[in-house]
Amino acid sequence: MTRKLLYLPVLVLAVAGCNCESARKSALTAHEKEIDSIMAEMTLEEKVAMLHGKHMFSSAGVKRLGIADIEYADGPFGIREELEPDSWTPLHMETDSATFFPTGSALAATWSPELAREYGKGMAIEARLRGKDMILGPAINIQRIPTGGRTYEYLSEDPYLSGLLAVGYTLGAQENGAAVCLKHYALNNQETARGIVDVKVSERAMREIYLTPFEMAVKQADAWGVMAAYNKVEGKWCSENSVLLNDILRGEWGFKGMVISDWGGTHSTGAVEAGLNVEMPGGAFLGDSLLVAVKDGRVSEEAVDERVREILRVRMTVKPVPEEMANKTMTSQPNAQKIAYDVALRSVVLLKNSGLLPLDLQKYGKIAVIGDNAVCPQATGGFGAGVKALYEINPLRGLMSRIYDKAEVEYVPGYRRYGPMDRFMRKSPVCDPDPEMLAEAVRLAEASDLVIFFAGENREIETESSDRKSMTLPLGQDEILRAVSEVNPNVVTVVVVGAPVDLRNVEKLSSAVVVSWYNGSEGGNALADILTGKVSPSGKLPFTIPEKLEDSPAFSLGVFPRYDEAPYSEGIFVGYRWYDKKNLPVMYPFGHGLSYSSFEYSDISVRSSGKGIKLSFQIQNTGDMAAEEVAQVYVERPESMQEMSVRELKGFERISLAPGESRKVEMFIDRESLRVWDSVHSCWTVEPGRVNIGIGSSSRDIRLNATTTIK
Ligand code: GLC
Questions:
Q1: pLDDT digits (tens, 9 = 90+) for 319-347
Q2: Is the pLDDT confidence value at 217 over 80?
Q3: Catalytic residue among 133, 262, 422, 478, which?
Q4: CA 230 – ligand 1 centroid, Å
Q5: Phi, psi for residue 159 in degrees, rounded to 5
Q6: Is 478 in the pocket of ligand 1 (CB under 6 A)?
Q7: What is the C-alpha separation between 426 and 586, in angstroms, rounded?
C-alpha cells in the first residue's frame, strides 16, 4: 500500500499561515556550484540569448562553454514530427513517425496514476530518440467548459484526479530522461479569445480548483518545466504574472525549473522580472530589446541571472542527446505502443449495457458497422499539435482483426466526414444527414443481426483555438441512429469523442453505449478487445456528461462565451460540484463506468488520526468474469464554515479481481488534502469537525457511508 501513498495528496505543508514549504527537494538544485562557474564566464549577450527561442522548437545554450541548446517536443499525446527549424513546415523525415498515445481525457478515464507514469515513460523514450529535452505536456487545465476545444487534450473536471495523473505523467517522463512542461499555467480553460481573455476568478476557486493540478505535479513530482498560458489572470498576462510565477509557483511551491511562454504569448521585456525564463518561439521582447533594457537599467541583470540559472538547472539535469544519436531510429517503439494499448484498454467507458455486450457472435453473426468514426483517423486534425503516427488501428480494423473469421461484418460510413475545409470555412458540424448515406445505412441495418453505430466528433471538430458551439452530435448522427434503430433494435453505439456530447437520443435508442475516446495508435485493438469480451471495460468518466449544455455552470450563469473578461462566477462549483450543488440530473455522472462483472462493497471502517483518515472496506467481484473496478472516495464537510461542494473526490483505487474474489482495500486520506482556501486570511486551512466519507463506483453511486471527525 505504500506505493499508493505516492499518489495520495501528500501535500506536506507547514500550514501555519501561508508559508507553505514545498514538499520535496528538487533534483534541479544538484548543480548550483557548476552553474555558478558557468555563469561567471557568460557574457550578458550569451545570457540574453538563452531567454528566447533560437528556432521554432529550441532555445539557445552557450556553444562556447559546451552548453547545448534545449530541444522541445510538442506533446502531449505523441512526439510531434520534425519541422523545418524556423517554420511549421514538416521535414517529412523517414524516422519521425511516433506512437499516438490516447489523448488527455482518455488517459484520465483510466483513473490510474500508475498508467499515467507508464504514459510519461513512453513519451520520454520516444522524445529522447528524437533528441528532445522537454516534452510540451502534460496539458492539465481543468475542463471548465464541456464544449471546450481542448477538453479532449486536458484530463478532468476534477483537480485531484487531474493532479494525480499529472504527478504520474511527470514522474514517468522525468525518470526516463525528459523534462515535462506543465501547461497551460494558468486558467486557460477556453479557446474562445484565448489570446486576450482576462480571467476574473476568486482566489479560493483559483487555488482549490485551477492551480491544484500544477501544485501537485510540482510538489509531488518535481516538474522541471511550466508553460505560461496565453490569457490574463486578474489583469496580468500569465507570461508576466509575478503572482503566479514568482509568488505562488516559485515562492510557495518551491519550483526550481524554467517557465516558457506559449508560442507568441510574451508581451514585454518586464516578463523576465515577473518570472518568465524563455520567450517562444522568437525574441521580440526577450531578444535585443531585453539587452537594451538591461543596459539602460530598465531590467535588472540580477533578474536575468536568476532566469539563466533556472534554465541551466534544467539543462544540467536533462542530458543533451548527441546530434549523431538523434533521429537515427524510428520514433515509435514497441514498448511505447504496448503502453498506448494498456492505457486505451483501461480508458474505454461502458455507459449503458442492456445485455448486448460483450458481443455474442453465435447469436448475432451478421454485424453492420455504421459511421465514419469507425475509420476516421484521430491522430491529427484541427489546429495545433497532432501526431504523425507510425500507425493508427481504427475501430473497424481492430474489430475485423478479432472477428473476421467469426462473423460477417459489413461497413457503411452513414455520414460524411467533417474535414479541414469545413473547419476553415467555419461550417457548423451540426447538420442534417445525407439522404443517400442515410438510406444506405438503413438498408444495411435492416439486413443485419446487430448494428454497431459509431457516433461522436473528430479532431477537426474538437480542436485547439476554438470551442464547440453545442453538444449536439454532428452530421445528423441522431437522425441516422433513430432511423437505424427503427429497423433493427439491436444497436450498440460507440461514441468516439474527447469531451461531453448530448447523449439523450443515443441513450434512448441504443441497447449499449460505450465511450472509446481519441484512443491512440492501439485504440481500435483495445476497443475490439472490450466489445468481444476479451477484457471487461473498466474506464470511468473523468468529467460529467450533462443532459444539456445549458445545465453546465458557465452556460447556466451566462458567463460563457466571453471575449474580454471571463468571470468565473461559478467559483469552486465546476463539473460535478455544480450539478450536485444544484441537485441537477445528469446524463452520466463524474466517475461513472460499468463493467461486464459486478462488485459488492462492504465493511467500511474509518479512523481519523492527527495526520488524516485511515479507511478500509471490502470489495468483491460478484460476477463470473475477471474485472477491474475503480473505487472512489468522496468527502463531505457538513459543518464547514465555508460554502462547500456536496462532495469532493479525495481518493480512488483501481482494483483487479478474479471472479468471486474479495479483497480488503486500505486507503489513507491525508489531513492536508482536506484543506480549504481561507479567502479572509489568504491561506490554506484545515477545518476540524465532522467528515462524511462516501465510497462508491461513481460520484452518484455511493455504496458505503461512514462518518468521523478530525481535530
Ligand atoms: C500552441 C499551444 C501549446 C503548444 C504550442 C507549440 O499554441 O497552446 O500547447 O505546445 O503552441 O505548438
A1: 999 999 999 999 999 999 999 999 999 99
A2: yes
A3: 262
A4: 10
A5: -70, -30
A6: no
A7: 30
Give the pLDDT of residue 25: 87
Q: Write the DSSP string, 641-671.
A: SS---S-EEEEEEEEEE-TT-EEEEEEEEEG
Q: Summarize pLDDT for 463-497 with one digit per residue, the tens.
A: 999 999 999 999 999 999 999 999 999 999 999 99
The residue type at 455: A
The pTM assigned to this predicted structure is 0.97
Would you say residue 125 has pLDDT above 90?
yes
Separation of CA 122 and ligand 1 centre (Å): 21
Strand partners, 662: 620
Measured distance CA(352)–CA(362) in Å, rounded = 22
Indicate the residue type of 398. G
Ligand 1 pocket test, candidate residues 83, 154, 464, most atoms within 8 A of CB? 464
Which stretches of 433-582 are assigned E, i.e. beta strand?
A: 450-456, 491-496, 512-515, 545-546, 565-567
Would you say the CB of residue 264 lies under 6 angstroms from ligand 1? no
Which three cell numbers, joined as nine digits, stand for 417?
A: 466526414
| 9, pLDDT greater than 70 | no
In one-letter notation, the amino acid at residue 675 is R
Q: What letters, b where the CB count within 10 A reaches 16 and e where it falls short, cover 560-579?
A: bbbeeebbbbbbbbbbbbbb
Centre of ligand 1 from the C-alpha of residue 85, in Å: 16
Rama region for 459: left / alpha / beta (φ>0; ψ in -120 to 50; rest): alpha
CA distances from 316 to 31, 32, 70, 128, 693 (A): 7, 10, 11, 16, 46
Dist. CA 425–CA 441, nearest whole Å:
28
DSSP code, position 594: B
- Grid cell at residue 566: 471571463
Question: No. of H helices and E strands in the chain?
Answer: 21, 28
Q: Which residues pair with 454 in a beta bridge?
A: 494
Residue 694: pLDDT band by 50, 70, 90 thresholds?
very high
How far does residue 66's CA lie from ligand 1's centre (Å)?
29
Cell digits for 669? 486520506
Q: Nine-digit cell at 620?
A: 468483491
Return d(Cα 609, Cα 649) in angstroms, integer: 20
Alpha-carbon dihedral angle through residues 119, 123, 125, 131, given to the nearest 10 degrees = -170
Is 678 designated active site? no
Is 308 touching ligand 1 by the criterion CB < 6 Å?
no
**Cα(448)–Cα(437) distance, integer angstroms:** 17
Radius of gyration of the chain (CA): 25
Angle at 482 between CA 480 and CA 486, to 5 degrees: 115
Q: How far is residue 483's CA from residue 30's CA, in Å, rounded to a whole number?
A: 65
3-state helix, strand, coil in the chain (%, to 5): 30, 25, 45
C-alpha distances out from residue 597 to 49, 284, 602, 629, Å: 59, 59, 17, 9
